[in-house]
Amino acid sequence: MSISPATKQGVTSTRPIRASSASIGGRDVSVAIVLPAFNEELTIAATILEFHRALPDASVVVVDNNSTDNTRGCTLDAFAEINTRGVLLTERRQGKGYAVRRAFRSVSADVYVLADADLTYPGHHLLELVGPIVTDEADMVVGNRLARGRYAAENKRRLHGFGNRLILALVNRLFRAHLGDIMSGYRAVSGSFVAGYPMLVEGFELETDMTLHALDKRFRVAEVPIEYRNRPVGSVSKLRTFEDGRHVLSTIIQLVRYYRPLLFFGTGGTILGLAGLVTAIPVMSDWLSYRYIYHLPLAVLSTGLEIAALLSFGIGLILDSVVHMERRAYERDELTRRWG
Which of 92, 138, 117 is nearest to 40 (CA)? Predict the structure, then answer.
């Protein structure tokens, strides 16, 4: 297939582009390989060629996210070299979340494969990720970088590794899951998952958010062990240790707040209630000893803390009911989308 003139110029229509079909396991399914790219001129062409070799009939969708180098030109050269259908999109809002959102809304497919444009994820795992979705065994298949130990060896940022393990343990505990790598950027998702996924994140927390949505809405999530390669020499990672560390802490807080509000506000209520009891000890001692309260400020403080504790528990109960009703509504909407 040839690249359309609109794609060569980086212009897309307002109607979604249908990804090309590929024969997988005897079934014809449309597959879109989404590659968000920000200043990846050293690796984008090789990444496109590697994924094309793995699945020649799939559509490769590159989203240029404000690159200041020759990422765009290298992408078009690679499209011309493989002489197949390629889609080049532009997203001006900075962030991986914005880039993937642009791809989901511009290209229609039965299966979407997300990967990075830096050659860190091998293309030969592609069919392993897509296969379970095609055979209706899973709605999301995640490439587990940690299963073979290669990621730990290549990862030079120990704080990133610690943050990943912390969030992973929390997610598995809250959702009673047994996942091994929720932050992998190499994954495949079904078109039905994308149709019901409200993408509100902007940056690299995208993968965590997608996994949480899948677990919360009871989608089937599978994992496939994959290899992980370090970036080629000269290619610079977009990860920032302290900034991403802040995002990790924020993700943990938001995770509990949005998905388990009773736990979040109940914990806050318990802390406030205990603080109220502690500050009330001198007050109660005054009353028991003298039948008079000398620590009047502590009496006011303990009363306020106990009231705040009750309010926190009440908010948690209300929001927990809201979350439950939202899950029920989502299930109904999902059946409507699936069966019309």
Answer: 117
Q: Domain range holding 273?
A: 261-339
The mean-pLDDT minimum among 20-29, 220-229, 239-248, 316-325 falls in 239-248
Same domain, 284 and 254: no
pLDDT at 7: 44
What DSSP line would sit under 153-215, residue for residue?
Answer: HH---HHHHHHHHHHHHHHHHHHT---S-SS-S-EEEEHHHHHT------STTHHHHHHHHHH
The tens digit of pLDDT for each residue in 63-115 reads: 999 999 999 999 999 999 987 668 999 999 999 999 999 999 999 999 999 99
Residue 68 DSSP SS3: coil
Helix, strand or coil for residue 325?
A: helix
**pTM for the full model?**
0.84
Tally of domains within the chain: 2
For residues 255 and 329, state if they share a domain: no
CATH for 49:
3.90.550.10
DSSP state of 318: H
